[in-house]
């Protein structure tokens, strides 16, 4: 019995936005030093930017009217130096902030990937591969602008606004009050726009995940073969077009959300200089103190310098709110509970003999569901062989998954050399137990790279020896590129038997003391099975071997055969002993014999 494959739905997100913001800020904590340098550059840039209007006022009110050429030259030189310094500070600020942002992106990608590597097999049986890929590629990629430039832009614009307001107050407080009257309204509008875009962004990212899953499944080699042989290529194209159409709508809505309201803010801010001129003229008409031409020009220059960072600040706020949806999806993965963890002080075995025991083992996929395995007691001495047989759904593969700890037992325990596998460190368990399954996975890389995945520092001689033991060396050397031949996605350039022998060679290279064979030959024809079985026999020599068997002809020589039925051991013994019992095992043997006879 296997778990039902369904799409995984993450838990509801924490609605506490301040907590989420604090968590985002913690991502930048390791780079405090660099961010401090950015802050200094931002402050210096802001001071330089507000200096130019004051220099301009002196030019208009003093240097030009009094025809002081020397002072004019110094003031003009000051404006040029300000522009140069502003440009240099801007480049350095961009370099440092982009570097920090990319490091944060790297940390996020690595954290999510590392967390997924620690998830149990159950998570991946419930989650579409495309969904996982979309979280790492699309969601983290979508945050790139936020973590590389938005934070710096926020600090830069905020500092610029503060410095500009102070400078405007120094020039004329009355004109400053008029300039700032509408800012609270603008802030309120931008928050509304940000909330709207955040909701749309969440829907958009989910739709992108659906499309990524569709592409991953339908455009893999297996997906293409299935689609064409079933005549569903056009149907799959139409289905993808429908999903893409939904994404088009969400992209348009995301880009247009609040666009008119933000445009109104821009129009009003662009018209503010005219309002300042009118205010200055009205104040003079009503008998108020006159505003000098230099002050008026400098003030409107500062005002434009205020509006640019203010609009950018409001837009940055919208972008940050939008990015919260992406951070939320990433944090959902980072917060996933890890079912299989290593003890704080795990046991490390330098030398593993290979004694395996299952003591009153119980296992459930769901804590409230029916047990898949119950009351399992099996003892496999070091170097002995065990075969587990039974009808489909009896729990054979599930039992096999418990030994390398792909799942944790929900009752009883599994031990290796007397130590509970839950107490062993991951490296010891990975070195101790080698698995060859029916579904062989090969990377889209060369034959040599696939073999070295088991032992990265293996020499060519070791590769050749492992391939010879698996009876695949002669075939490899006949290929045009030999061991440099690229196997293709999931090894589709090789036959089923050849892939199995490559997997066996990979396991031989790792040299584990315990070997788990999970129906390793069940999908092969009889002729290919013989060749693979010979390779398995070479691999099994002097190792503790646990074979999950579909074809009983492959397990007749096992030291112990266990028959499972509905998750319980109903018979055990050698091949001859079980035949004499004339029970379940004998019935399975007769069934296999009849099938082989019927098949010729």
TrEMBL record:
GO molecular function: ATP binding
Keywords attached to this entry: ATP-binding, Membrane, Nucleotide-binding, Transmembrane, Transmembrane helix
Compartments reported by the entry: Cell membrane
Source organism superkingdom: Bacteria
Major site of localization recorded for this protein: membrane
Residue span(s) of domain ABC transmembrane type-1: 36-322
Topology of the protein relative to the lipid bilayer: Multi-pass membrane protein
PROSITE patterns referenced in this protein's UniProt entry, alphabetically: ABC_TM1F, ABC_TRANSPORTER_1, ABC_TRANSPORTER_2
Database matches in InterPro entries: AAA+_ATPase (IPR003593), ABC1_TM_dom (IPR011527), ABC1_TM_sf (IPR036640), ABC_transporter-like_ATP-bd (IPR003439), ABC_transporter-like_CS (IPR017871), P-loop_NTPase (IPR027417), Type_1_exporter (IPR039421)
CDD domains recorded: ABC_6TM_exporter_like
Parts of the chain that traverse the membrane: 35-56, 71-96, 151-171, 177-194, 260-278
SMART domains: AAA (SM00382)
UniProt-listed Pfam families: ABC_membrane, ABC_tran
All residue ranges annotated as the ABC transporter domain in the record: 356-591
Name the UniProt record assigns to this protein: ABC transporter ATP-binding protein
Annotated organism of origin: Streptomyces fragilis
């Amino acid at each position: 019995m296997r778990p039902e494959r369904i799409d995984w739905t993450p838990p509801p997100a924490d609605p506490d936005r301040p907590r989420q913001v604090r968590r985002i800020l913690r991502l930048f904590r390791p780079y405090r030093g660099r961010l401090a340098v950015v802050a200094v550059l931002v402050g210096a840039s802001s001071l330089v930017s507000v200096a130019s209007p004051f220099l301009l006022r002196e030019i208009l009110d003093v240097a030009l009217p009094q025809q002081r050429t020397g002072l004019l030259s110094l003031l003009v030189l000051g404006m040029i130096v300000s522009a140069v310094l502003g440009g240099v500070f801007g480049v350095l600020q961009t370099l440092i902030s982009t570097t920090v942002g990319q490091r944060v992106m790297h940390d996020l990608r690595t954290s999510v990937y590392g967390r997924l590597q620690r998830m149990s097999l159950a998570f991946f049986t419930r989650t579409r591969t495309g969904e996982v890929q979309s979280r790492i590629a699309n969601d983290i990629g979508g945050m790139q602008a936020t973590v590389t430039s938005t934070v710096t832009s926020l600090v830069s614009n905020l500092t610029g606004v503060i410095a500009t307001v102070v400078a405007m107050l120094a020039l004329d407080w009355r004109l400053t009050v008029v300039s700032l009257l509408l800012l609270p309204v603008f802030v309120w509008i931008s928050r509304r726009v940000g909330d709207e875009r955040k909701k749309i962004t969440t829907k958009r990212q989910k739709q992108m995940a659906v499309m990524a899953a569709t592409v991953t499944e339908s455009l893999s080699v297996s997906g293409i073969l299935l689609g064409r042989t079933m005549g569903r290529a056009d149907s799959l194209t139409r289905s993808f077009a429908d999903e893409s159409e939904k994404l088009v709508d969400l992209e348009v809505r995301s880009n247009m959300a609040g666009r008119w309201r933000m445009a109104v803010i821009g129009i009003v801010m662009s018209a503010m200089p005219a309002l300042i001129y009118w205010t200055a003229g009205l104040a003079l008409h009503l008998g108020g103190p006159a505003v000098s031409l230099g002050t008026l020009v400098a003030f409107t220059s500062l005002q434009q310098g205020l509006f640019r960072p203010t609009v950018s600040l409001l837009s940055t706020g919208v972008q940050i709110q939008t990015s919260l949806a992406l951070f939320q999806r990433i944090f959902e993965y980072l917060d996933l509970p890890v079912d299989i963890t290593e003890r704080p002080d795990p046991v490390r075995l330098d030398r593993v003999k290979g004694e395996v025991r299952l003591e009153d083992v119980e296992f459930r996929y769901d804590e409230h569901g029916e047990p898949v395995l119950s009351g399992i007691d099996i003892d496999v001495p070091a170097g002995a062989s065990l075969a587990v047989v039974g009808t489909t759904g009896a729990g054979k593969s599930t039992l096999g998954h418990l030994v390398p700890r792909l799942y944790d037992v929900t009752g009883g325990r599994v031990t290796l050399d007397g130590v509970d596998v839950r107490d062993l460190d991951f490296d010891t368990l990975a070195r101790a137990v080698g698995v060859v399954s029916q579904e062989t996975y090969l990377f889209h890389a060369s034959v040599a790279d696939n073999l070295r995945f088991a032992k990265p520092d293996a020499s060519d001689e070791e590769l050749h020896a492992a391939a010879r033991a698996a009876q695949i060396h002669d075939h490899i050397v006949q290929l045009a590129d030999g061991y440099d031949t690229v196997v293709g996605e999931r090894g589709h350039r090789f036959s089923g038997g050849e892939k199995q022998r490559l997997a066996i060679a990979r396991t031989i290279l790792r040299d584990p003391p315990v070997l788990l064979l999970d129906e390793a030959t069940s999908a092969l024809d009889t002729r290919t099975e013989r060749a693979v079985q010979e390779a398995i026999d070479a691999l099994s020599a002097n190792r503790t071997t646990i074979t999950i068997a579909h074809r009983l002809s492959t397990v007749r020589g096992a030291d112990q055969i266990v028959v499972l039925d509905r998750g319980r051991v109903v018979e055990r013994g050698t091949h001859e002993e079980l035949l004499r019992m004339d029970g379940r095992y004998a019935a399975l043997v007769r069934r296999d014999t009849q099938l082989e006879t019927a098949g010729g």
